[in-house]
């Protein structure tokens, strides 16, 4: 089957600085690195590295050919990525010697996507394929409606969290993935605990505590402990988790097995610095000993 992922594509520009700049201050950077990022791209790479067939739906600007090439090198089908006049989305990240950071995020082409750009993006999907999305692009609801009508299984990773955005798509969802902070924010906004949400499967990730799977039909909740590792950088853990989870489900694994696979991949990810470019592949995940 296929995973159609509507999601952001960013350049992560990481600048090393002796200290974070104060208002009005100019400082020189000591190092720069440019990597592929964006929750959407990260999840597409993770699912592709987990051996799933992934079609990425999204947009870059005229400066984004390198990002599309890199997604392709990781095995993602990039033919539904539009090139728009706006700049490619990017994050300008300053990291100081103490590891503190500040981040400027510019949505760029990710937030310039229009419904017309999506017109054929979900063709020729088939019943049972997955449609995955996050909250970093425009056209989320429109695309989820098309996907739902076409019989795709609709999965939403509700990040960055916005209560109104989740509520707008909730009736269309088969699977909702949230971290514990997002789960609490959603409960505060709706008054509904994860158990009471109108979504069949809800997965709440709990960082070093693992994750919880709630089957709302039966009201059962199962905890899955995390794989014990020594974390060095938790960036991209959630995105790797979700990409692997979807790939596992798409391959026909029962939810419990797909969650174990996702947690193995995410655990390996937190032992590495970086985002999309260091997401582990399936062999590394299967070979992980702990
Ligand atoms: P997010 O990155 O979206 O905030 P979490 O921090 O909850 O998400 O992490 C997602 C998943 O990554 C967790 O469910 C867990 O499987 C794995 N993970 C995160 N931190 C650790 C850790 N310190 N040790 C092992 N696994 C981790």
TrEMBL record:
Superkingdom to which the source organism belongs: Bacteria
Sequence positions that bind substrate: 10-12, 38-42, 136, 239
Active site residues of this protein: 239 (proton acceptor)
Binding site for ATP: 179, 205-210, 238-239
Keyword Disulfide bond: no
Regulation of activity: Activated by a monovalent cation that binds near, but not in, the active site. The most likely occupant of the site in vivo is potassium. Ion binding induces a conformational change that may alter substrate affinity.
Enzyme Commission number: 2.7.1.15
Gene Ontology MF term list: ATP binding; metal ion binding; ribokinase activity
GO terms of biological process kind: D-ribose catabolic process
Main location: cytoplasm
Catalytic activity: D-ribose + ATP = D-ribose 5-phosphate + ADP + H(+)
Cofactor(s) the protein requires to work: Mg(2+)
Quaternary structure note: Homodimer.
Record family assignment: Belongs to the carbohydrate kinase PfkB family. Ribokinase subfamily.
Protein's name according to its UniProt entry: Ribokinase
The species this protein was found in: Allosediminivita pacifica
